[in-house]
Amino acid sequence: MVLLGVTLAGCGLKSGSPMVDNVVPGSVGRGRPLNGASLTVTSKNFSENIVLGQMIGLVFKAAGAEVLDRTNLPGSISAREAIIKGDAAAMYEYTGTAWITYLGHAKPIASPLKQWEAVRDEDRKNGVTWLPQSTLDNTYALAISKKNNAEHHLKTLSDVAALSKMDPAAVTLCVENEFASRDDGLPGMEKAYGMSIPAANIRKMDAGIIYTQVSKSNSCLLGEVYTTDGRIKAMDLDVLVDDKHFFPNYNAAPVIHTATFDKYPEIAELLNPLSKRLTTEVAQQLNAKVDVDGEDPHKVAKDWLIAEGFIKEG
């Protein structure tokens, strides 16, 4: 992964790298509607969001814009502030993050479409324009190795709740510190499903270690995962169904600095086809190329856009 040097003064961005790819329109960007535009793209600092940010930049580049790459910012707030202040033009954001973290709502909206509509409408006052969301849903889940699940036959979180009541010692759980304390994480999940996992059965660790522990050891039967993570398939894990729909929807959608969108409304025609193609399964495949195979996020984004016909090599 190429780490780009980014410094912050307050939340203002001060550095980045010009995109120098020689790409031209494929199915999007015909007529190069962004000729003469100078646009900055950004992202958070995890693989999936970096890949999505690179996709936006490459599509803008193929459509004629000069693009400054300021992806890979630390945390969600940095990228969010960049969009609000106009330091960056566009990124992919998640509806659940906006609804709960940025807009301050305690309870998610069960319908993915209604949650996106509510976020879109409320965020207008912040100078943020939301384009239509993808079905890519990067939400929380619990996973178990197929090897261990051959014994327990767990399919849903309700099954986990039943097991925890029948045999409390059997349900051991590896989670991140944040998930262990968030209302939309472990405490809320336990309440929603009527389960009470003993504190001694909960082990806190970094996200990357969780996948290994669940897959290759018996230190935890279940682990917190993200539904779009490429390591789920690579490590042969079963993801349990959230049958009570507790976890928020985290559908990815392009967010645009509104003043920029007003100037270049063609951005919608460039990114809407891209979002329609992005699914949870596609994200798993792309994330695996970065997190499992060690490929550069920029290359992963470019190869996929070309393979899908959105852009072409110049």
Question: Could you explain how this protein is built, in words?
Answer:
The chain is an alpha+beta fold and 314 residues long. The protein is 42% helix and 18% strand. Strand 1 (8-9) and strand 2 (12-13) form a beta hairpin. Helix 1 crosses helix 14 (297-307) and helix 3 packs across helix 4. The chain is globular, with a radius of gyration of 20 Å. The two termini are 24 Å apart. Mean pLDDT is 93; it is low at 1-14.
Helical stretch tally: 14
By helix and strand content, what is the structural category?
Answer: alpha+beta
**How does the major sheet shape up?**
5 strands, mixed
Order of helices and strands: EEEEEHEHEHHEEHHEHHEHEHEEHHHHE
